[in-house]
Give the backbone structure.
Amino acid sequence: MSIESPKILVPVGFSEQSILALRQAVVFAKAMKASITLLTVMEGNGFLKKLFNTDQSGDDLKPMVKAKLQELANEHIVAAGIDFQVMVSQGLVYEEVAKVSEIIDADLVIMGTNGKPQNFRKRFIGSNAYRVVTLVQPPVITVKGVRNIEGIKTIIFPLVLDRRSKEKVGPALKYARLFGADIKVVSILESEEKAPVLKAHMKQVSKFINEHGITCTAELVEPAEKSGVVRNFLEYAYNNNGDLLIITEEAGERDITDYLLGNDVQAMVYHSEIPVMCITPSKVKWEAMWESF
Protein backbone atom coordinates (compact mmCIF):
# COMPACT_ATOMS: atom_id res chain seq x y z
CA MET A 1 0.00 0.00 0.00
CA SER A 2 1.57 3.27 -1.14
CA ILE A 3 1.67 6.27 1.18
CA GLU A 4 0.19 9.41 -0.37
CA SER A 5 2.63 12.30 -0.60
CA PRO A 6 1.98 15.52 1.32
CA LYS A 7 0.12 18.31 -0.48
CA ILE A 8 0.79 22.05 -0.48
CA LEU A 9 -1.94 24.46 -1.57
CA VAL A 10 -0.80 27.78 -3.07
CA PRO A 11 -3.48 30.41 -3.80
CA VAL A 12 -2.35 32.46 -6.81
CA GLY A 13 -3.80 35.87 -7.64
CA PHE A 14 -0.96 36.67 -10.08
CA SER A 15 0.32 39.44 -7.80
CA GLU A 16 4.03 39.72 -7.05
CA GLN A 17 3.42 38.39 -3.54
CA SER A 18 1.59 35.29 -4.77
CA ILE A 19 4.44 34.49 -7.17
CA LEU A 20 6.92 34.88 -4.30
CA ALA A 21 4.74 32.55 -2.22
CA LEU A 22 4.92 30.01 -5.05
CA ARG A 23 8.71 30.19 -5.03
CA GLN A 24 8.73 29.62 -1.28
CA ALA A 25 6.30 26.72 -1.72
CA VAL A 26 8.83 25.02 -4.00
CA VAL A 27 11.39 25.20 -1.17
CA PHE A 28 8.96 23.48 1.22
CA ALA A 29 7.79 20.96 -1.39
CA LYS A 30 11.37 19.79 -1.99
CA ALA A 31 11.94 19.25 1.73
CA MET A 32 8.55 17.61 2.31
CA LYS A 33 8.58 15.61 -0.96
CA ALA A 34 5.16 17.17 -1.51
CA SER A 35 3.01 17.99 -4.52
CA ILE A 36 1.75 21.53 -5.16
CA THR A 37 -1.77 22.61 -6.08
CA LEU A 38 -2.06 26.07 -7.62
CA LEU A 39 -5.47 27.66 -7.04
CA THR A 40 -6.85 30.85 -8.53
CA VAL A 41 -10.15 32.11 -7.14
CA MET A 42 -12.17 34.30 -9.49
CA GLU A 43 -13.68 36.61 -6.88
CA GLY A 44 -14.01 39.52 -9.28
CA ASN A 45 -13.23 39.54 -13.00
CA GLY A 46 -11.92 43.09 -13.29
CA PHE A 47 -8.25 42.35 -12.54
CA LEU A 48 -8.26 39.14 -14.57
CA LYS A 49 -9.87 40.87 -17.58
CA LYS A 50 -7.14 43.47 -17.45
CA LEU A 51 -4.43 40.83 -17.00
CA PHE A 52 -5.58 38.85 -20.04
CA ASN A 53 -6.73 41.91 -22.02
CA THR A 54 -10.18 40.42 -22.65
CA ASP A 55 -13.86 41.18 -22.14
CA GLN A 56 -14.65 37.55 -21.33
CA SER A 57 -15.73 36.63 -17.82
CA GLY A 58 -16.90 33.68 -15.71
CA ASP A 59 -16.55 30.26 -17.33
CA ASP A 60 -15.22 31.82 -20.55
CA LEU A 61 -12.25 33.20 -18.61
CA LYS A 62 -11.34 29.96 -16.83
CA PRO A 63 -9.33 28.38 -19.70
CA MET A 64 -7.10 31.47 -19.82
CA VAL A 65 -6.56 31.36 -16.07
CA LYS A 66 -5.72 27.64 -16.17
CA ALA A 67 -3.27 28.22 -19.01
CA LYS A 68 -1.59 31.00 -16.98
CA LEU A 69 -1.32 28.71 -13.95
CA GLN A 70 0.18 26.01 -16.15
CA GLU A 71 2.71 28.58 -17.38
CA LEU A 72 3.65 29.43 -13.80
CA ALA A 73 4.01 25.74 -12.98
CA ASN A 74 6.29 25.22 -15.97
CA GLU A 75 8.41 28.18 -14.87
CA HIS A 76 8.71 27.42 -11.16
CA ILE A 77 7.67 23.84 -10.40
CA VAL A 78 8.41 21.48 -13.28
CA ALA A 79 12.19 22.00 -13.26
CA ALA A 80 12.22 21.06 -9.56
CA GLY A 81 10.65 17.69 -10.36
CA ILE A 82 7.58 18.38 -8.22
CA ASP A 83 4.14 16.98 -9.06
CA PHE A 84 1.46 19.62 -9.39
CA GLN A 85 -2.09 20.37 -10.41
CA VAL A 86 -3.94 23.60 -11.22
CA MET A 87 -7.45 24.56 -10.13
CA VAL A 88 -9.76 27.51 -10.79
CA SER A 89 -12.82 28.28 -8.66
CA GLN A 90 -15.23 31.16 -8.20
CA GLY A 91 -16.34 32.82 -4.96
CA LEU A 92 -14.78 34.56 -1.98
CA VAL A 93 -11.04 33.92 -1.86
CA TYR A 94 -10.77 32.85 1.77
CA GLU A 95 -13.84 30.60 1.58
CA GLU A 96 -12.66 28.89 -1.59
CA VAL A 97 -9.15 28.37 -0.23
CA ALA A 98 -10.61 26.76 2.91
CA LYS A 99 -12.92 24.58 0.80
CA VAL A 100 -10.20 23.40 -1.60
CA SER A 101 -7.81 22.82 1.31
CA GLU A 102 -10.34 20.37 2.74
CA ILE A 103 -11.10 18.75 -0.62
CA ILE A 104 -7.48 17.94 -1.44
CA ASP A 105 -6.60 17.28 2.22
CA ALA A 106 -3.78 19.82 2.15
CA ASP A 107 -0.93 19.48 4.64
CA LEU A 108 0.15 23.09 4.23
CA VAL A 109 -1.16 26.32 2.69
CA ILE A 110 1.33 28.93 1.50
CA MET A 111 0.09 32.32 0.34
CA GLY A 112 1.32 35.85 -0.22
CA THR A 113 0.22 38.91 1.70
CA ASN A 114 0.47 42.57 0.73
CA GLY A 115 0.83 43.73 4.31
CA LYS A 116 -1.63 45.74 6.37
CA PRO A 117 -4.79 46.91 4.54
CA GLN A 118 -4.76 50.69 4.41
CA ASN A 119 -8.39 51.74 4.05
CA PHE A 120 -11.36 51.24 6.38
CA ARG A 121 -13.24 48.84 4.08
CA LYS A 122 -10.25 46.51 3.77
CA ARG A 123 -9.67 46.64 7.53
CA PHE A 124 -13.31 45.77 8.13
CA ILE A 125 -13.26 42.84 5.72
CA GLY A 126 -9.85 41.62 6.80
CA SER A 127 -7.07 40.53 4.45
CA ASN A 128 -7.54 37.29 2.54
CA ALA A 129 -4.35 35.93 4.08
CA TYR A 130 -5.53 36.54 7.63
CA ARG A 131 -9.00 35.17 6.93
CA VAL A 132 -7.48 32.01 5.47
CA VAL A 133 -5.38 31.64 8.62
CA THR A 134 -8.53 31.62 10.75
CA LEU A 135 -10.55 29.27 8.52
CA VAL A 136 -8.31 26.39 7.44
CA GLN A 137 -7.15 23.48 9.58
CA PRO A 138 -3.65 22.81 8.19
CA PRO A 139 -0.81 25.24 8.98
CA VAL A 140 -0.77 28.40 6.85
CA ILE A 141 2.47 30.12 5.85
CA THR A 142 2.12 33.76 4.85
CA VAL A 143 4.81 35.33 2.70
CA LYS A 144 5.36 39.06 2.35
CA GLY A 145 8.36 38.52 0.10
CA VAL A 146 10.78 40.96 1.72
CA ARG A 147 13.26 38.30 2.84
CA ASN A 148 12.99 35.22 0.63
CA ILE A 149 14.38 31.92 1.91
CA GLU A 150 16.22 29.14 0.10
CA GLY A 151 15.97 26.87 3.12
CA ILE A 152 15.35 27.02 6.86
CA LYS A 153 18.26 27.13 9.28
CA THR A 154 16.59 28.92 12.19
CA ILE A 155 12.99 28.65 13.39
CA ILE A 156 11.79 31.37 15.75
CA PHE A 157 9.33 30.10 18.37
CA PRO A 158 7.61 32.98 20.23
CA LEU A 159 6.30 31.72 23.56
CA VAL A 160 3.57 33.53 25.49
CA LEU A 161 1.62 32.65 28.63
CA ASP A 162 -1.06 30.74 26.78
CA ARG A 163 -1.43 26.94 26.67
CA ARG A 164 -2.15 27.17 22.94
CA SER A 165 1.30 28.63 22.40
CA LYS A 166 2.88 25.27 23.23
CA GLU A 167 0.96 23.47 20.49
CA LYS A 168 3.55 24.78 18.05
CA VAL A 169 6.04 22.25 19.45
CA GLY A 170 4.93 19.42 17.15
CA PRO A 171 5.05 21.46 13.90
CA ALA A 172 8.29 23.15 15.00
CA LEU A 173 9.94 19.74 15.51
CA LYS A 174 8.57 18.47 12.18
CA TYR A 175 9.93 21.33 10.09
CA ALA A 176 13.18 21.55 12.03
CA ARG A 177 13.82 17.89 11.17
CA LEU A 178 12.85 18.38 7.52
CA PHE A 179 15.28 21.27 7.07
CA GLY A 180 17.92 20.39 9.67
CA ALA A 181 17.11 23.65 11.45
CA ASP A 182 17.67 24.93 14.98
CA ILE A 183 14.85 26.36 17.10
CA LYS A 184 15.06 29.55 19.14
CA VAL A 185 12.39 29.91 21.82
CA VAL A 186 11.83 33.52 22.81
CA SER A 187 9.56 35.30 25.28
CA ILE A 188 9.11 39.02 25.84
CA LEU A 189 9.26 40.14 29.46
CA GLU A 190 6.27 42.49 29.75
CA SER A 191 6.37 42.60 33.57
CA GLU A 192 8.76 41.31 36.24
CA GLU A 193 6.03 39.34 38.04
CA LYS A 194 5.59 37.16 34.94
CA ALA A 195 9.30 36.30 34.72
CA PRO A 196 9.29 33.13 36.90
CA VAL A 197 6.36 31.57 35.00
CA LEU A 198 7.80 32.53 31.61
CA LYS A 199 11.16 31.03 32.52
CA ALA A 200 9.49 27.80 33.65
CA HIS A 201 7.56 27.53 30.38
CA MET A 202 10.66 28.27 28.31
CA LYS A 203 12.73 25.72 30.20
CA GLN A 204 10.13 23.00 29.72
CA VAL A 205 9.66 23.66 26.00
CA SER A 206 13.38 23.97 25.19
CA LYS A 207 14.18 20.83 27.23
CA PHE A 208 11.49 18.85 25.40
CA ILE A 209 12.77 20.00 21.98
CA ASN A 210 16.42 19.24 22.82
CA GLU A 211 15.44 15.80 24.11
CA HIS A 212 13.88 15.12 20.72
CA GLY A 213 17.12 15.72 18.89
CA ILE A 214 16.76 19.35 17.78
CA THR A 215 19.16 22.04 18.95
CA CYS A 216 17.12 24.57 20.88
CA THR A 217 17.98 27.70 22.84
CA ALA A 218 15.68 29.89 24.94
CA GLU A 219 15.88 33.59 25.68
CA LEU A 220 13.80 35.99 27.76
CA VAL A 221 14.02 39.39 26.09
CA GLU A 222 13.67 42.78 27.74
CA PRO A 223 11.33 44.81 25.50
CA ALA A 224 12.59 47.90 23.74
CA GLU A 225 11.01 51.11 24.95
CA LYS A 226 7.71 52.09 23.28
CA SER A 227 7.68 48.91 21.21
CA GLY A 228 4.84 46.43 21.28
CA VAL A 229 5.20 42.68 21.79
CA VAL A 230 4.92 41.90 18.06
CA ARG A 231 7.62 44.40 17.13
CA ASN A 232 9.94 42.90 19.76
CA PHE A 233 9.36 39.36 18.47
CA LEU A 234 10.04 40.51 14.89
CA GLU A 235 13.19 42.40 15.85
CA TYR A 236 14.45 39.30 17.66
CA ALA A 237 13.72 37.19 14.58
CA TYR A 238 15.61 39.55 12.28
CA ASN A 239 18.56 39.98 14.65
CA ASN A 240 18.89 36.20 15.00
CA ASN A 241 18.63 35.42 11.27
CA GLY A 242 15.27 33.72 11.62
CA ASP A 243 13.93 32.00 8.50
CA LEU A 244 10.48 31.05 9.81
CA LEU A 245 8.25 32.31 12.62
CA ILE A 246 5.75 29.85 14.10
CA ILE A 247 2.69 31.27 15.88
CA THR A 248 -0.75 29.97 16.90
CA GLU A 249 -4.16 31.21 15.84
CA GLU A 250 -7.59 30.20 17.13
CA ALA A 251 -9.81 28.67 14.45
CA GLY A 252 -13.09 30.17 13.25
CA GLU A 253 -14.43 33.54 12.17
CA ARG A 254 -13.24 36.42 14.31
CA ASP A 255 -15.28 39.00 16.10
CA ILE A 256 -15.83 42.28 14.23
CA THR A 257 -13.57 44.10 16.71
CA ASP A 258 -10.60 42.03 15.53
CA TYR A 259 -10.94 43.47 12.04
CA LEU A 260 -11.42 47.02 13.31
CA LEU A 261 -8.81 47.02 16.07
CA GLY A 262 -6.47 44.24 14.94
CA ASN A 263 -4.68 41.64 17.06
CA ASP A 264 -1.21 40.22 17.48
CA VAL A 265 -1.71 37.49 14.86
CA GLN A 266 -2.84 40.02 12.28
CA ALA A 267 0.09 42.26 13.11
CA MET A 268 2.56 39.38 12.72
CA VAL A 269 1.06 38.34 9.37
CA TYR A 270 0.94 41.92 8.09
CA HIS A 271 4.39 43.08 9.18
CA SER A 272 6.77 40.12 9.27
CA GLU A 273 9.51 40.27 6.64
CA ILE A 274 10.11 36.52 6.96
CA PRO A 275 7.56 33.74 6.39
CA VAL A 276 5.08 33.20 9.24
CA MET A 277 3.54 29.78 9.93
CA CYS A 278 0.19 29.97 11.74
CA ILE A 279 -0.91 26.85 13.59
CA THR A 280 -4.56 26.25 14.51
CA PRO A 281 -4.50 24.63 17.95
CA SER A 282 -6.43 21.48 18.75
CA LYS A 283 -8.39 21.36 21.99
CA VAL A 284 -6.87 18.02 22.95
CA LYS A 285 -3.65 17.66 20.94
CA TRP A 286 -0.52 17.79 23.12
CA GLU A 287 -2.80 18.06 26.18
CA ALA A 288 -1.12 15.16 27.99
CA MET A 289 2.30 16.60 27.21
CA TRP A 290 1.56 19.77 29.17
CA GLU A 291 -0.88 18.53 31.82
CA SER A 292 1.51 19.58 34.57
CA PHE A 293 0.71 23.24 33.83
About this structure: The two ends are 41 Å apart (CA to CA). Confidence is low (pLDDT under 50) at residues 118-126, 252-262, 283-293. The CA atoms of residues 122 and 171 lie 31 Å apart.
